[in-house]
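writing this on my phone so excuse typos. first protein, seq and then structure
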Amino acid sequence: MPDLSAVTALVIEANPNMRTQLRNMLGESGVDKVQLAVSAGAAVRKLRETRFDLILCEYHIGDGQDGQHLLEDLRHNNIIPLATLFIMVTGERQYEKVVSAAELAPNDYVLKPFAADTLHIRIARAVIKRDALLPTYNLIDAGDIPGALRECIEGEHKHPQYLLDFLRLRAELHISAGEADEAEKVYQQVLELRAIPWARLGLAKALYMRQRYDDAEDLLTGLVEENDQFLDAYDWLARTREAAGEMAKARDILARAAAVSPNRLSRLRRLGAIALEMDDSHTAEAVLGEVVRKGKYSDFRDPDDHVWLMQAQIGNGKLEEAAATLRDLDRTMASTERGKLCTALSSAMLHGKLGDRAKAKAAVESALTESRRLGKVSLSLKQQLAQACFDHGMEADGSEVVLDIIRTADTPRVVENTRKMLDTRGYSNLAQELEKQVHHEVRALVATGAEKAKAGDFDGAVDEMLSAVGKMPNNVHVLFNAALALLRHIENRGWNEQYADQAQRLIDRVRRQDPNNARLPALKDFHATLKAKFGIRDIKV
């Protein structure tokens, strides 16, 4: 058994008697560096400030959250590292509900009632396993995906008892790198060993990334039919249907998931956004009202939620309710950076509907000022801001916002929805002109970089293309040519580890954005050829 005296722990438990009992049990196991949290919010605040080796969390923690939701929030928002152990304390009914259907599962579950020695064995077992996986975790945290993949393969041989854990990590790393074909092979390998639901879900994700939506949907439909608690499968099924353009089906599957698990804010937000896109204001208002209400208890509340709830309320003609939502936003989040933007944009929406064009236009101008000052704004808010500009005769400002949307759009549907917004306002010609302008910008940026490389200014070519990536971070053509500029630099100036890593990251981004890009294999081969030329060893994974 490992020595647990150095382990630091956070106990998350609303019941004071149970908190004391868990703390005493940890003490009997040698874990005496223990802090306590009575709610999810209190836990998040502690975890933002302090890193713990172990989190011991009761499944029911109140405030509309459970331990599974908290774990997902902590992992998705990178508040805890992979090396932090998360052990759930739960009753048998909750265990049966989540153990086979969680993509992000705790390191272990302890079923109530239990004795101190049971807890000690579970913690010790989790620590031993964590230590075996720790070298891989450290490489992942450092952003070294190739190194982490190699470490996974070594770990599979050194620690065969954790083979499935290393295979799962390896597949997830391939997914994060956009290597759907490699991930698919690993998930198939797992499924040959055992029919594990998470491996089937992972295989569906790989198929989704390869745009094989029908095959992904078949797998995901089977998963939710077999286990109606498999919430991650619902989410990916909705995403698959959305990508295939089946918005009503995506909305309906998310509604089913929300009925099973009504407290997951990210799922409710997505459902509300799809409903708004479909002009289903009634569904959107009901769902987004819950998002705003539940968000009051969450450390991950978002002022955007009030904007979308107001949009739904205005769409349903409920102007008094919209005004109340605006007052709540102004009272609770107007002092934050994004809150100021959301308040101004919401004011513009409401005053515009009330017919006070002067106040509405002033609010749009304020929103523009806040968006420029803030810099990084979500694409959905940019779309709403562009719409407000055109609705109030501010064509030049609206055009600038639309140009920014087209330059930074991460999916073709974002551009398509922006085009539809302009079309419905009589600006179809402007939409074509703005898209053509961005197309010319891309060609000019790429041409400038290519000319510098042709003239032997490889440093200048790299600077030019990396600057272009900053301006258009999701444009596949720009990403591809930036990677090519980095590789041309290496080809002509010698091996540069930093440039090689940057090129790999850009290639991964191209792969994620456009997995069927016909020029991508040649770029990957060029990268591999340069490694061979300069004697850079890279273990095949």
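second protein below, same order as before
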Amino acid sequence: MPPTASPLQERREPRALTGWPGQAYDAADIYGQRMQGWMPPLFSADTERSPYRNRIVSRVRDLVRNDGWASGAVTRVLDNAVGVMLRPVSKPDYRYLAHLSGNSAFDAQWAHEFARAVDSYWRAWADDPGRYNDAERMLTFAQQMHLGFRHLVVDGDALAYLPWLEENIGLGRARYATALQIIDPDRLSNPQNQYDLKNMRNGVEITDAGVPIAYHIRRAHQADWYNMSETVIWDRIDRETSWGRPQIVHFFEHHRGGQHIGGTGMLTPVLQRLKMLIKYDGTELDAAIVNAIFGAYIESPYDHDMTAEAMEGGDNSLGAYQEGRAAFHEQRNISLQGSRLPILFPGEKVNTVSAARPAGNFREFERAVLNNVASGAGMAPMQVSNDWSDVNYSSARGALLEAWKTLKRRRDDFSIGFASPIRIAVLEEIMEADDLPLPRNAPPFLAARHAYARCRWLGPGRGWIDPVAEREGAILGMQGGISTLEDECAESEGRDWEETLDQREVEQKAFDDRGLEQPEWLGSRNQYPGYIPPKEDA
């Protein structure tokens, strides 16, 4: 009789879609073929980054140095997010200052005058032709922000030091003692390369509550062979002074709570695919070159190994055959109008090489990988590939608008976390050193620095795909009250609206001074005060 199943044995059937019995989620399956062996570690935010930070960063840098796709992606993000013209436009919170001081003189008119004065002093520091804003005296402030943002995108961290350099102040030299130095994040590390501890995370010293209070910076990069004595010395620099002035500014994208370092740049999630694409590109190129060089070959019935074996065995017939072939071809060089006509030795035949390169699916494979890279980097696919051949206006505008959201978020995030603390330190000195328009009972800077330092950061504009249609849409938005001139100038052109109006006033006056009829693009003829219309010819 056939054996019967024991009543204690239950028929094991999946209770979820594909998971093992007893599991409510397929994602928890550890026995199925799809999920078996997939057991990633559950690390803290710092533990999953610190031990592998140097390995990841060095690989990303190698790609950016040597791969056109990676280098182009980084360049595109830098150019669209910050460029080299990142600058603040002051927007002091006059309402807060009025409530704090009880002085109604803190109004919109005062805010306008204060902003113009502060911005002019800021430009004197940020665009100093002597580059005294830079502790190394090489870059303007906007160029330093470009460098800091590049470190953020590639390395995952942006790090800066704000030294006080009074020795730079003098006639024809610096106006302010505040300077800025961009630091290579590699130099942020634990003293003597010790392991991370409870209050030390990859050079960031934290309190028990997780607040960064100090940073340990190597005096020289660990691979700076020309300055080896400094590579084993660390300086401990407080995050800020006792009154809150920033000394070290450290910024990175926060992906988890309790995270104190970045260490993973924009290309980290797609690093493996980019490396595979490089190998595939190289293999296809090598094969194409070989096919281009070797167009045809002659096949004989015997190869050199067979000839050598025959000669070792005392049989000279194969050796004589090969020698005869060589002598035959040495004397034959017949051509017809530059094209050689092969006359073959008995037993030989001509074969051609089929140049089937690149492979038929090469373009689609490359496109799929680059789409993955673009998605991971928060960019439009055509921005990475720089291939606009299959793009129409609607698809391009939709893709670029989505990419612009990410680029603008990155710029705003970087401005808030990195550029604004630097500006606060500079503005503190400007408030002390220069005569700014302040009404009576004005609160000191330290009592309301967030109100005095409030600003809007301007970077590269979004630009236009169809300038006519999109500018008409911008005008309709302003006329309908859903947009302003400030918004349109900042978003589309990356310009300050007041500077735009000032320039229009200058151009209107130039036409009037010359007695020229103003073109329609100058708008209405609301002239500057004291305008006298030109005399008409008799």
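The longest helix spans residues 393-433. thats all i got for now
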